[in-house]
Design a protein that fits this description.
Length: 156
Amino acid sequence: MKLVEYSDFGALRLAHFLIGQMVAENTENWEFMGQIWVGEVLGFTQWLRLKDDPQVLRSIALDLDALPKIVSTSVLDRIGLPLLPGMKAEDILVTCGSPTTRKLMGGKTTYSFSLGKGAAYRLRCTTTSTSGLSYLVIMRTDFDLPSFLKAAFGEI
């Protein structure tokens, strides 16, 4: 799989993908993954940039259950991630390979993956047995995570 280069990922903005009357809220001082961020938020969909580097997108979270399919598939196509809303866990594993971690919680399973070389990404996919892929987070790896989060991604 060929994921988007960091420079192209870093320039993406949620507002460019929204349709109709959809409007993202700009946020500042967003705490996530042990860091402080700025970015765009629409429900549980979050596009985040480190507060100390506010021009560069580093993390995208997509609430696939809430977003119109045309929005989520446009984003996934743009970043080169061959996943679809509702995709079954087995198909995600075939596409992304072996997960670095797998966590079961409340009827949901979250898989963590390390993807790409050079422009590498952390990917977390949450699935349910009934609706398949419902939520994902993809992050560039060019910023440091606290050790407890590195463990969650299977990096230590």
